[in-house]
Amino acid sequence: MAFFIARIRRLNMAEKKSLYLIALVPEVELRSRIRTLKEEMKHRFGASHALKSPAHITLQMPFRRPDSFESVLNEAMESFALGQSCFELPLNGFDCFPPRVLFVKVAHQEEVIELHRQLQNTLEEELRLSKQERGSRFHPHMTIATRDLTEEAFLEAWPEFARRPFNAVFPVKSLFLLKHNGKAWEVWREFPFQGVDPSAASR
Hints:
This protein is an alpha+beta fold. It has helices at 2-14, 28-45, 70-81, 110-125, 131-134, 151-163; strands at residues 17-24, 57-66, 87-97, 101-106, 141-145, 167-172, 174-180, 185-192. 37% of the residues lie in helices and 30% in strands. The protein has a 4-stranded antiparallel sheet, with helices on one face. Strands 5-4-3-6 form a 4-stranded antiparallel sheet. The protein is globular and about 45 Å long.
């Protein structure tokens, strides 16, 4: 019996694992505006890492699971999303996490914080993500530069962006599963909230 248990464990360890991320992704027009900001950060300040993902607000930081887990993940996310109501997130100006991250600031965060709290319960109870995988902090934001923004470039960019206006409204009506392809993040699945037509959800 011990032999078979050990073999199963080896097979599980050998199974390919993919990297996933759960997020809110804005509609095309706002995605385009955020991408323009990311392109500006690349050309003016040499920071291109943020271009490896579409504009998004992270609800669950990256985690690895076997590909066979994906059907369970999809089912849980679909069920969770159908229990959620649509809401709007105002975006207003910029903020930062010194000394490497610049982002578009989310105003009136109460509804997205509550969405995150409910999602964390689902991830823990239904999908068995550990406390370490789920993380302990949540600060909703939409990144335009990260990681490869040098401290010198940050000190140059931030005073300008601190004064720079940016205003938009982000209609939140779906949850998104992103999957890493080895080079960048791709939108893998969309899970519309209750009452949302799936064919028009992300337009």
